[in-house]
Each structure stands twice: as structure tokens, then as C-alpha cells.
Amino acid sequence: MDPIRIDDPRDSRVAAYLDIRERDLAGRQGRFVAEGKVVLDLLLSSGRFGAESILVLENRLDGLEDILHKAPADLPVYIVTSAVMDAIAGFHMHRGILAIGRKETPQAVGPLLDALSGQALVVVLVGIANHDNMGSIFRNAAAFGADAVLMDATCCDPLYRKAIRVSVGAALKIPFASFTDTSGFTATLAERGFEQFALSPRGNTDIRDARPAQRLALYLGTEGEGLPESLLARLQTVRITMSKGFDSLNVAAASAIALHHFSHR
Amino acid sequence: MDPIRIDDPRDSRVAAYLDIRERDLAGRQGRFVAEGKVVLDLLLSSGRFGAESILVLENRLDGLEDILHKAPADLPVYIVTSAVMDAIAGFHMHRGILAIGRKETPQAVGPLLDALSGQALVVVLVGIANHDNMGSIFRNAAAFGADAVLMDATCCDPLYRKAIRVSVGAALKIPFASFTDTSGFTATLAERGFEQFALSPRGNTDIRDARPAQRLALYLGTEGEGLPESLLARLQTVRITMSKGFDSLNVAAASAIALHHFSHR
């Protein structure tokens, strides 16, 4: 691997990195941006996604040798000065480590579930539209060994730059898939022997009393609305008991508690 | 309460709201900024901090009647158009509800602990310098009925605007105090009969096996460094068991799991 020096921010070889923030909003046609050392490491080592190139500040290259050895020999590594990096990205990039990854063809729910073993923990997200929460939930899912994340069509993209960063790369590690028909999806999980728990402030059972199952699905909804009533009516519901005077918990914090409880020790 | 219309962003009556972001960094001499409906409600109803004034978008006033009734009759409520609000704040304030609160004289640790009952849960923070994490920890502390938050001198200010917002007002509700001498502080808690647990990835006991005590102190450290070894050596240490391939948990998520475990059911 021979790093390639880039001096012109408009060099076509780094076009995918131009105006990172604005392009986040506009989408980037099958690509995503990985930021930082830990995330780059996961991108190169998990093997789930291909990488197109790496863009590094010249003074960060030395600390990256071990990680860059995991990259295919022909993966271009561009090095730039801080001024060129900022001119490319469109704002001050103090981390100085970026990579472009290629999204895969979205996986279908069925094959993803078929690939799971007899002992499986899956996270089901409905209406999680905030990238911070999405990233945090992926991070917690990875920390507690969840095998997959399944999302309804109203969830935001876990491969959005900020979601990947907040997930500390977990979004590049845990398989995920989207579904459109929620009630059909619930039936699919039931057929495959999943016990299905919905987390809700009005859940019937305190989560401390909910028995982990060999195959378990945990449903999480948005902070404001929560999971739709139609779904709650069809699933076992669990609650996290909170203080009477302040029953407010962020969905990411709730996911940490619930996943810790349901994780296989 | 008669709302006072402000048309000039430079009106001295709203000077405390000028350039909110920049002033956050510079400090604001004994004042803090409360944002949003829920936080305003807590400011006015918890009674822990005095309010100096309220600044509201004219079209948000109708939805605030119930909350504004909790304010002292002589508290000024300023109403402005969206353009004036943005000109005052220095950026687009889409929430449209702000208030200035007065910090109290910092409470000392001793009197704060003396005021606690026989059953008490306190959170001890060492080196939490990120306002997001600080706010999230306060939110979790409130959700699980913690009675106080005690911080070493390297922690950031829980009354920073963003910390209050992320805490959903919990920073205005839970008593807190700072200490400088950590080992003296540990002795103070021991004298008062607190069992003291330090959360650490290398903790001796899985937190699921740690028995909640009547009086309990939970120590949390920074994400990177964790709690100092000198402290870990003197306390019972507990860990949150994570996946071998991904043992990464945000300190706020860890606080949620630990506080949920130690909260009195």
C-alpha cells in the first residue's frame, strides 16, 4: 500500500468526500462515509462492506499502519494536509480519518432470519428516525451480542455518517434488514420460534421478571409515540419501572437496559 | 401575568438571551438557560432554582398557559416573533421557549449527604467532561430515583444549556454538589454507611450479582480512561458483561443499566 498524496481538493479521486455534511442529507448513491480509527478498523476487518478508498491526514498515517494492513492491497489510501482535508470535507475534520464504503444490496428479512442459529437475539425498531438514537441502539446491540437489527420503513438509515460514528462502527458489523408489513413480519418471527417482547412504558410485565428465551425479538419504538397500539396488542409487553416523579428515559438508554437483561450471559 | 412584547433584539430586558451559543462557552455569571416546554415546567415547579425571565415565541404562548401559571406573578414573560427570537439567540431557535434561571450558591457535599434519608442512592461522577453524557446521566439518575449526583472537580457543569436540555430538566431537579479530594470524599460516604460500587469494564463482580444496599453510591468514570486505579482499589468494583467481539458501551448507557439495577423497586 503506497499512500497517494492529494494536493488539490477538487481532484476527482477524492470527489466522494466533497462537502460531506451536505451530501449526507442528499444521500450518496450506494456509498457511506466511515469516520475515525475504530470505525475504519471495523469496516476493513468485518468484511461486510467493501471499501472504495481511504482519506487520511498526513500526520495520522503513522498510527494507522496496523489497521491499513487489513485493507486489500489495491485499496487507494489518499493522504492530505489539514487544509486540503478541510477544503474537501467542507468543515474542520479534526479526526482526520475517513473512508468511503459501498452499501450492499439490501438484505431481505427472510434470508437474514434463516441464517441465525437456534439461540438468537434480534432487535426490532419501529419509527426510530433520529440518527443518534439509531447509532446508540446499534452500539448497545453489538455490546450485548444481538444477532440482527430489523427495521420498519419509517426508521432512518443506520449507514448515515453520524449513525455509524455514534454506533462506533456497530452499524458495519451487525446484519440489518428492513420490512414494510409489520403484522406480516411479526408472523414471520413467530413461525421461526421467536418469543417477541415489546418495550413500552405501559408494559404488563416488569422487564426484571421477563424470562430470556433462546430465540428472542425485542421491539423498540420512538420516544414520543412509542410502539403502535396494534403492535402492543399482539406481543408480550415489558416495562422498565421508573421513578414516579420522572418517568422519562431515552430510547437508547432503554435499549441498553433491555438488551443487557435479555443478552445471553 | 401579562406577556411583554419585545420588538428590538437589543432591548436590555432580553440581554441575558443574546448570542446564546457563544455565551454558553464564556459562562454566564451565575445564570443558566432553560430550553423547551418540559424543562421550563421543571424549572418553575421544582422550586430549586429561581427564574429571572421567560422568552417565548408569540405562537407558542397558547400551549404554555398551564405551565406559566406555576411562575411567580411578577416573573417577566417576553414574547417575540420568530425573526426577533433568532436575532436575539444568534441562531434559529425552532423550539421557541427559553428561560433564564439563577444558579444557587454551590451546595457542599456534607450538608447534601446529611439531608438524605436512610434509603439513598447517589451517583458519583469522576471526569465526565462531555455535556451530552452529563445530561444523559442526570436523566437516567432521575428516572431511577437517585437522590443526589456528586462530581469531582474535572466534571463539566450540569447547568450548561445542552446538559440541561439532554437531561430533560433532571439537572434542575436532582441535588448535586462537587468535591475536590476524592479519597476524603470516599471516607465521608463510608462514615455515613454508604456501600460504594465502582463501575468498570474490569470490575470483579458482574453487576447482576451485586446486591443493592439501603444506602448506595455508584461511581462512574470517563469513557476512555475509566475510573482511576487508586479509586478502584478502594471500592467494590462491578462490571457490565458485554460481547467479546464488541465491548464498547457509552457511559450514559452504562449508567442506565447500573442505576436500573440498583434502584429501589
UniProtKB/TrEMBL annotation, chains A, B:
Q: Which residues form a coiled coil?
A: none
Q: Which GO terms describe its cellular component?
A: cytoplasm
Keywords from the named record:
Methyltransferase, Transferase
Q: Which GO terms describe its biological process?
A: methylation; RNA processing
| InterPro entries (UniProt xref) | Alpha/beta_knot_MTases (IPR029028), Ribosomal_eL30-like_sf (IPR029064), rRNA_Methyltransferase (IPR051259), SpoU_MeTrfase (IPR001537), SpoU_subst-bd (IPR013123), tRNA_m1G_MTases_N (IPR029026)
Q: Does the keyword Ribosomal protein apply?
A: no
Organism superkingdom: Bacteria
Please tell me whether the keyword Hydrolase is annotated for this protein. Answer: no
Q: Which SUPFAM superfamilies match?
A: alpha/beta knot, L30e-like
Listed GO molecular functions? RNA binding; RNA methyltransferase activity
The entry's protein name is: RNA methyltransferase
